Amino acid sequence: MPSSIAPTGPDAPQALPLVIVGAGLAAWTVARELRKLDTQRSIVMLSGDSADFYAKPTLSNALAQKRSAAQLVTTPAAKMAETLQVQLLPHTLVRSLDTGARTLSYEDAAGQSHSLHYGDLVLATGADPIRLPMAGSAAAQVQSINHLQDLARFHEALGVAPKTVLVIGAGLIGCEFANDLLIGGYAVHVVDPSPRPLALLLPAGAGEQLQDALQAQGVVWHLGTTVQSLDADASSGRLQATLANGTSVQVDAVLSAVGLRANTALAGAAGIACERGVVVDAHVQTSAPHVYALGDCAQYASAGARVLPYVMPIMNAAKALAATLAGQPTELVFPLMPVAVKTPALPIVVAAPHPAQSGQWSQDEGLEAGAGGVWRFIDGAGQQRGFVLTGKQTARRMELAKTTLL
Ligand SMILES: Cc1cc2nc3c(=O)[nH]c(=O)nc-3n(C[C@H](O)[C@H](O)[C@H](O)COP(=O)(O)OP(=O)(O)OC[C@H]3O[C@@H](n4cnc5c(N)ncnc54)[C@H](O)[C@@H]3O)c2cc1C
Questions:
Q1: DSSP one-letter string for 72-132
Q2: Would the CATH topology of 3-128+260-325 be identical to that of 131-256?
Q3: Rounded to 10 degrees, what is the CA torsion of 305, 177, 257, 401?
Q4: Given this model, what pLDDT does residue 93 score?
Q5: Ligand 1 mean position, distance from CA 354 (Å)
Q6: Alpha carbon of 365 to ligand 1 centroid (Å)
């Protein structure tokens, strides 16, 4: 029989707990911001994982920092819960929501079902790595890294001997892992159908600089092609990747970094509007009353209906949402949020223009060779709407941000 943590007192949202689903950066940041404004409200947090606090961006520079997955944890879950006065239920999966009755059902670590009544509900369920279909006897050995336990599993697969790793995807996360693996002493191959790395984010010249910088440190690029199959090679005990261009590469591990898809399953099944993410309005509220969403699972009206799977949007959304939950309805307005790409071979800062923004990239001239580059995205009226800085020019981030219109 399902048990139930029943509320006591009047059935008003403020008298019932704030329930947060998830324990990543989005979930913990909402709890922390709310505690600055409200020390009384009961907060319950349910998480499918251990809920230990760590900075997810450190997953892709753990080798450079010489840290294991366990060493990336900055604050254990119990300490976070105590500090923020949160009732934490780790290793707990929320199975369904009833937004009419304002209840959810969940399965605890022992497999027991329960239900819980909420006053307000925050969905911070993150995103899942996209898996491309692949043929071959070793296709199941392709790994992705989006959580601490994924990194632990990947490090285990790498073992201790020098190895060759194939990275599928030359986007931000693929390039960061490729650079980190080089620093860790691994041989690295990267495959991507695009003509250059970070093709969706960077102007061609900046992408080419990154391609050259990583190649100079040892990355073998396979651009304009895809992996067709991955097979176990019985004679060598290694993996054989066959590419669509006919090349075949022998490797010891394969890491897929082809993108993330917002985790909307729970919201979608409850009839909450979802598109590329859980749709939220300018108050971070979903289509259901008293249900909010932020982080990698959310699609923000305040960002022109985009998902923004980065740290800075979470910080801004959590602040606005905490104020709303504390009784001061606050619209989320995103500032310019440049992203630093963690590729020490060529550091990069990107302030991407809105995808619907028309305009053209232009490169600043007159910089010395080896001094990095500056690209500005200029609209039809001559206004700067985005920028990319590489190498030493990344120090000019604040200066460029001041002259960029949102
Ligand atoms: C390798 C890597 C490097 C990155 N580097 C950068 C960077 O340099 N700069 C930057 O700005 N951003 C970076 N990012 C992105 C950034 O880290 C994320 O945007 C952010 O951490 C997402 O946090 P989140 O809380 O939304 O999601 P998550 O951290 O994924 O948390 C989701 C939580 O929801 C829980 N959950 C899901 N479903 C359920 C359920 N049904 N029941 C209970 N719990 C559930 C999960 O267990 C988890 O606790 C990087 C991401 C990766 C993967």
A1: GEEE-HHHHHHHHTEEEE-S-EEEEEETTTTEEEEE-TTS-EEEEE-SEEEE---EEE---
A2: yes
A3: 20
A4: 97
A5: 22
A6: 38
Structure tokens at 349: 């800062």
Testing ligand 1's pocket by substitution, the residue of 29, 33, 56 carrying the most ligand atoms inside 8 A of its CB is: 56
Mean pLDDT of the chain: 94
124 lines ligand 1 (CB under 6 A): yes
For residue 231, report the distance from its CA to the centre of ligand 1, in Å: 31
Residue 402, pLDDT above cutoff 80: yes
Q: Find out if CATH 2.60.120.260 is the number for domain 131-256.
A: no
The verdict on the CB of residue 325 being under 6 Å from ligand 1 is: no
Give the rounded percent of residues in the chain with a pLDDT score beyond 90: 91
Indicate which atom in ligand 1 lies nearest the CA of residue 308: 19
pLDDT of res. 13: 60
pLDDT in the model for residue 358: 94
Place of tokens 């302030």: 351
What percentage of residues in the chain have a pLDDT greater than 70?
A: 96
pLDDT for 161: 72
Q: Characterize the bridge pairing of strands 164-168 and 187-192.
A: parallel
Q: Residue 224, CB half-sphere, CA atoms under 13 Å: how many?
A: 3
Identify the weakest region by mean pLDDT among 9-13, 214-218, 379-383: 9-13
Q: Is the CB of 59 under 6 A from ligand 1?
A: yes
Please indicate whether residue 126, judged by its CB atom, sits closer than 6 Å to ligand 1: yes
Q: Which CATH class is domain 347-402?
A: alpha beta
Six-digit token string for 247:
């090349």
- Which sequence spans correspond to the domains of the chain? 3-128+260-325, 131-256, 347-402
**For 306-364, how does the pLDDT look when each residue is reduced to its tens digit (9 = 90+)?**
999 999 999 999 999 999 999 999 999 999 999 999 999 999 999 999 888 999 999 99
Q: Which of 91, 79, 34 shows the shortest CA–CA distance to 54?
A: 79
Tokens of 51: 């809920």
Q: What CA–CA distance (Å, rounded) separates 43 from 120?
A: 10
Q: Give me the amino acid identity at 246.
A: G
Number of neighbours of residue 380 by Cβ within 10 angstroms? 8
CATH number of 3-128+260-325: 1.20.1250.20, 3.40.190.10, 3.90.1150.10, 3.50.50.60?
A: 3.50.50.60
